[in-house]
Amino acid sequence: MKSRSLTLCGLFLGLTLATGCTPATENNGATDSGATPETPSTEATGEINLYSSRHYDSDAELYEAFTEATGIEVNLIEGSDDELLERVRTEGQNSPADVLITVDVARLWRAQADGLLQPTESEVLTSAIPAELRSSDNTWFGLTKRARVIVYNTETVQPSELSTYENLADPQWQGRVCVRSSSNTYNQSLVAAKIVEKGVEATEAWARGLVANFAREPEGNDTAQIQAVASGVCDVALVNSYYVARLRASEDPQDQEIVANIGAFFPNQDDGGTHINISGAGMLANAPNPEAAREFLEFMVTPEAQEIFANNNNEYPVVASVAPNATVAEFGEWTASTLPLESFGEQNAAAVMLMDRVGWK
Ligand code: FE
Fold it and tell me: How far is the CA of 189 from the centre of ligand 1 (A)?
């Protein structure tokens, strides 16, 4: 991740709190080192300081395109969602952070609820992004979307047997379901969405039935669930669409072997639509460069940026006129839920408690 237009995380080690610095890959590789420590400016500089929990080296392409289009340099600081939010809290009024980019609406909503973000009033953003994919107070904006799909083993499951998330609680799936841990925000947001849609009681009954059908205790990330389905540990699993697309697009024979007998089903087509989530961004409350931050956010909904941004992680663009990449397009047409994503954040705590009550580890 070398780039002339990017100042990497390693440059920020001079800060009192350096926990936000992690490698730019999903593995724990080494951070850049050898750079002279310097503190990012809290003065307006005509640059922006970007805090990102998206660990995709390829996002650098996006930031370079922004710099090329606007002349505004991007100083990138990477970390986990929790690390970055904690860092912004600790830095307080002295925070150099202009923009926060993160995955999953629960994190953006948390930042909003804690007063860490400020509104960006922009006709460009509100006209480009569907209302359900951004906050009602304009503090955060969905920039790509992902679907939570049911993956199934094509040798043991017919797509005609699949219908809804709710159906996975049916006894026919006993001992056949793999799901990631309840500590993961993807499942928290799905349960929160069900609470919004159907209420706590109905959602709890469903979640209890789902847990009763688990093939094993939750373990591993979404890719691990796909591997478990491929190897026969379970027959179905809930995962984000881009994990399937990433494996399908991979030239690694091992990845190809995993997805050879994997189908992806978009549930609830006749019952509220498939659950979606976002990668999104918002301007920090104490942003030293609010004008540049607004320009950055607006650049993110240009066709050029939408294509790069969505392609980098095989997600769907939020701007309707921009097509998904070829691998993602192979999923075909499907109907998404139109519940406001903001409501998932509001119900996140209730979802976590519910998952605990039903024994979703
Ligand atoms: Fe993910």
Answer: 13
Distance 222 CA to ligand 1 centre (A): 7
User: What are the average pLDDT values for consecutive 10-residue runs of the chain, which has 361 residues?
Assistant: 37 34 32 38 77 84 93 94 93 95 92 96 97 97 97 97 98 97 95 97 98 97 97 97 96 95 97 96 97 97 93 93 96 97 96 98 95
Q: CA–CA separation, 165 vs 358, rounded Å? A: 16
CATH architecture of residue range(s) 146-274+348-357: 3-Layer(aba) Sandwich (3.40)
State which H helix or E strand residue 345 sits in. Answer: helix 342-346
Say if residues 177 and 161 touch (Cβ distance below 8 Å).
no
In the reported structure, the alpha carbon of residue 295 is separated from the centroid of ligand 1 by a whole-number distance in angstroms of: 27
DSSP state of 340: -
Task: Find the 134 Cα to ligand 1 centroid distance in Å.
Answer: 19
Q: How far is the CA of 130 from the centre of ligand 1 (A)?
A: 22
Architecture of domain 2-145+277-331: 3-Layer(aba) Sandwich (3.40)
Q: What's the 240 CA to ligand 1 centre distance in angstroms?
A: 7
